[in-house]
Amino acid sequence: MRDLYERLGLGFGADEAALRKTIGAAKDRELAQRAKAVLLDPDRRAAHDAVYLVARRLRDWRVELLMEDGAWAQALSDSDLVRPDLPTEPLAKPAAKAGAARAPWWRRLFRR
Amino acid sequence: MNGSAPGLVQRLQDSPQRLADSIRASALWLAVLDGPLDAREFHEVGLALTHDPEGVPLQDIAEAFAAEPMPKDLPKLFRFLRGQRSPKRTVSLVDLYIRVAAADGRISQIERHALIFLSDLLAAPASLLGERFEALLGLEFDAPADLSDPAFFEAAETAARARAARQKAREADAGKAAQADAERREALLVLGLKPDATPIAIKAAWRKLSRQHHPDRQLQADETAKAAAAERFDAVQKAWKRLQDDDDA
Q: What is the CATH classification number for the domain harbouring B171?
């Protein structure tokens, strides 16, 4: 039920050329059909965008106000009420400089 | 008057009537979220709380939200409201939000999203919104529709085409138009409604009368009462079908 831009991996309100390119390259056939039927029709796209623009902002405010455990958010967890799932892969650690990792704790603390 | 939204949130924070003004502002925010403010929605908010001369005028709040419906600092207002919640206040606020959303006769998809957000903001149980919706409007609360599904648009477009065709046919034949209007008024009368009844009021009246006169509810009644109830039930269903044909409901 998430908005189609998000499911396609595009920014909200992406232009038509980017939409057509992404829809053409989409591996998920059902998603491509949906996006083609909704986002390439100006009236449908306007209605879709109006609702999901508000839904996205409300979702951001849920995070800001610590409301993600709200009763409705849990009941509709697959919807636009809650933020997208966190990445399943752990975030890559930044590459450490040679020698820096081996520096003793007191040298890192009192370097200056 | 300060017309910009950030100024509005600051004014609400500084208001001596901060709670009442914040409640009014949250209700007006809900009203403007899906389009220009309807006079009935504005009226509903005005009725909710007694205006205090020291507070922020309702008109100022409405103008600020009309300029920017979703200002970035609005969470400050919501955070304050969340902090002021209590079980009794939560119920009265949910009631207010439902009345305001329904005041223009329709509950839009955006209003459904916002009602759910406000319900969670007040930490209300998920069932409360449905219960109060049923109690106030006589309708079930449906979660927002999935607008990524073309079927949603196909159904809406089919209904709009049928409505346009009926309107065109009526305009082409003045006599038919007068007859259709008379039938519509009669159907509304059967449901106990005025000619300017909103779609929400029509659906609520139909549900209420259907429940009241349903044959399964007449088990203890005598034969005369059962027959009368059945007749009334049929009349209500016919009236509902007639109004559905007009897509009023």
A: 1.10.287.110
Q: Global pTM?
A: 0.76
The pLDDT assigned to B120 comes to 93
Task: Please enumerate in sequence order all residues whose Cβ is within 8 A of that of A16, keeping only pairs 6 or more positions apart, or say none.
Answer: A40
Q: Is the Cβ pair B78, A65 closer than 8 Å?
A: yes
List, in sequence order, every beta strand (DSSP E) within chain B: none
Average pLDDT, chain A: 79
Q: Do residues B13 and B108 share a domain?
A: yes
Looking at the fold, whether B123 and B160 belong to one and the same domain comes out as no
What's the pLDDT score for residue A1?
53
**Residues B139, B208: Cα–Cα separation, whole Å:** 9
Which domain, by its residues, includes B196? 150-245
Res B53: pLDDT: 77
Structure confidence by residue, pLDDT tens digits, B131-157: 999 999 888 898 888 888 899 999 989
From CA B200, how far away is CA B131, in angstroms rounded? Answer: 16
B1 interfaces chain A, CB cutoff of 8 Å: no
A55 with B70: Cβ contact below 8 A: no
Q: Compute the distance between CA of residue B19 and CA of residue B9 in angstroms, rounded to an integer.
A: 12
Select from A44, A48, A65 the Cβ nearest to the Cβ of B79: A65
Interchain CB contact of B151 with A (< 8 Å)? no
pLDDT at B22 > cutoff 90 = yes
Which of A76-85, B163-172, B182-191 shows the lowest mean pLDDT across its residues? A76-85
**Distance from C-alpha of B5 to C-alpha of B148, rounded to nearest angstrom:** 31
Here the contacts of B156-165 (C-beta below 8 Å, separation 24 or greater) are: B159/B247, B162/B247, B163/B246, B163/B247
User: Nearest residue of B to residue A73 by CA position?
Assistant: B120
Q: Name the minimum distance, in Å, from the CA of A54 to any CA of chain B.
A: 7
Looking at residue B6, its pLDDT comes to 52
Interface contact A61-B113, CB threshold 8 A: no
Q: Looking at B137, B162, B182, which one is the last position of a domain?
A: B137
Residues 31-60 of A with CB under 8 A from B: 33-35, 37-38, 41, 44, 47-48, 50-52, 54-55, 57-58
Chain A within 8 Å of B120 (Cβ-Cβ)?
Answer: yes
